[in-house]
Design goal:
Number of strands: 20
CATH architecture of the largest domain: 3-Layer(bba) Sandwich
Helix content: 25-40%
Radius of gyration: 23 Å
Number of domains: 2
Shape: elongated
Structural class: alpha/beta
Distance between the termini: 41 Å
CATH superfamily of the largest domain: FAD/NAD(P)-binding domain
CATH class of the largest domain: Alpha Beta
Length: about 475
């Protein structure tokens, strides 16, 4: 195997170099020895953390206080309950909401992330501005900062490429080793007292997707190629319970031509989505995740986001949107007849869609025919349109965990020394796609990894005290 791993036993093996790096760094800061393994040599750009828009919720953070925004974990939990119609795990939602502000402050102060609060538009479901991000609003920047800190931290080694394929357990059921395999098939057992499954979900396993997520199974998968359910399978093999396997984050704004993310900021600034014929088919502001299935159900499972120059300029802070523009995915026109011709939409249908947007934005209607209540301004020429297709970004169900990220068995007891985070763990998005809130991917990815390391360090400290007592 390549890498700089040591033969000696380590306190923690982290499987997955995405959000799991937060756990590795947190553990090392507590004096624990850590080994990170990942099968992807290109993990800095190839996993779901790096592909995200780097939005991390923090309810009650210092950035919110500086902006005069009143927020709390309780308000965040209420938003989660509202978005999921009460189907999210209340205990996990409360635990993640409680640590969300300490997490983002730790990311800034200890992990060196240059975070700022997003206040230029509101994401669906969040009742206040609570999302924090980095410049460029792209996960690759976030992950690079974490990686740089991990590489300079004493006590952390990386083994890449290497894939965790199993854990070994002692007579008492506790984790005693991590079985890793290199691309050539060579296996090695790393003695350890804890393993964090930070391997993401099962979005890259088409069989599992078809079984659990049939409504989105035909859509493009836009996530890490190694998100194959490894953590889920390992946990189930050792008696763990799975939960919310039907939950996922979809996205209705993947540009068809460039396969880049257009981003829902376009919608929240006043853009609309129409199907291939130019007809709107719902309230886009309900959320980009559930809208993926709505788009998938339209003719040929494709549509157009229609925007204007104002919205275009407002979305330029997003790296994903700039990449979409640079790829030439936007079609521009000085009038709607020309836009209809260039997109292949029915001119009458497209004009009707734009007229409905203008009526609501102009204040002549409280809500449009689909129930949408807010447009910033009417769309004005020149118009732009980008063809979009539905996509599956990542799954939101996995191994059942508690608030300390401990993997739970069918009877609710933890598997000693086994933790899970991110897509390997069950999330807080309820069932299906409709409960997904922006940040519901990164908060469990970073937060549960961070919390697992915190819990392990407390156990380690207690054990040391016991030994010396």
């Amino acid at each position: 195997m390549s890498g700089d791993a040591q033969e000696a036993a380590v306190d923690l093996v982290v499987a997955g170099a995405g959000g799991g790096l937060a756990g590795a760094l947190r553990a090392a800061q507590a004096g624990l020895s850590v080994l990170v393994v990942d099968p992807d040599e290109q993990f800095l750009r190839g996993n779901n953390t790096s592909m995200s828009t780097a939005m991390v919720p923090g309810a009650g953070s210092r950035w919110q206080r500086e902006a005069g925004i009143e927020d709390s974990p309780e308000r965040f939990v209420a938003d989660i309950a509202a978005k999921t119609h009460g189907t999210a795990d209340p205990a996990l939602a409360a635990a993640l909401a409680r640590i969300s502000a300490p997490l983002v402050e730790w990311l800034a102060d200890e992990a060196g992330l240059p975070l700022s609060l997003v206040t230029d538009f509101a994401y669906p479901g969040h009742s206040v501005h609570r999302l924090h991000t980095v410049e460029g609003r792209h996960g690759s920047t976030l992950l690079r900062h974490l990686y740089d800190r991990v590489r300079s931290a004493p006590g952390i080694d990386l083994l890449v490429p290497a894939r965790l394929i199993d854990v070994e357990r002692g007579a008492g059921g506790e984790v005693t080793g991590a079985v890793v395999e290199d691309p050539g098939g060579h296996r090695e057992t790393i003695p350890t007292r804890a393993v964090l499954l930070a391997t993401n979900g099962y979005g890259a396993d088409r069989e599992l997707v078809a079984r659990h997520l049939p409504e989105i199974a035909a859509a493009d998968y836009h996530g890490g190629q190694f998100s194959r359910g490894d953590g889920l399978r390992i946990g189930l093999r050792h008696g763990a319970r799975a939960a919310y396997l039907d939950a996922y984050q979809g996205h209705a704004a993947l540009a068809r031509r460039s396969r880049t993310l257009v981003g829902w900021a376009t919608i929240m600034h006043g853009a609309i989505m129409v199907d291939r014929d130019g007809r709107r088919f719902g309230d886009e502001t309900t959320g980009y995740s559930e809208y993926a299935a709505a788009l998938a159900a339209r003719p040929e499972a494709r549509g157009w986001i229609v925007l204007d120059r104002r919205i275009h300029d407002l979305c330029l802070p997003f790296t994903d949107f700039r990449q979409t523009v640079d790829a030439g995915a936007l079609v521009w026109a000085d009038d709607l007849d020309t836009l209809a011709r260039r997109t292949g939409c029915d001119p009458a249908a497209l004009k009707e869609s734009i007229a409905g947007q203008a009526a609501q934005a102009g204040g002549s209607a409280d809500r449009d025919a689909f129930g949408r209540t807010f447009f910033e301004e009417p769309l004005r020429a020149p118009y732009a349109a980008v063809e979009v297709i539905p996509a599956l970004f990542h799954t939101q169900g996995g191994l059942a965990v508690d608030g300390d990220a401990r993997v739970l068995t069918e009877d609710g007891s933890p598997v000693p020394g086994l933790f899970a985070s991110g897509g390997a763990a069950h999330g807080i998005s309820g069932h299906g796609a409709g409960g997904y809130l922006a940040g519901n991917g990164l908060l469990p990815a970073l937060g549960l990894a961070w919390q697992a390391a915190t819990a392990l360090s407390h156990t380690h400290t207690h054990a040391e005290r016991h030994e010396h007592s």
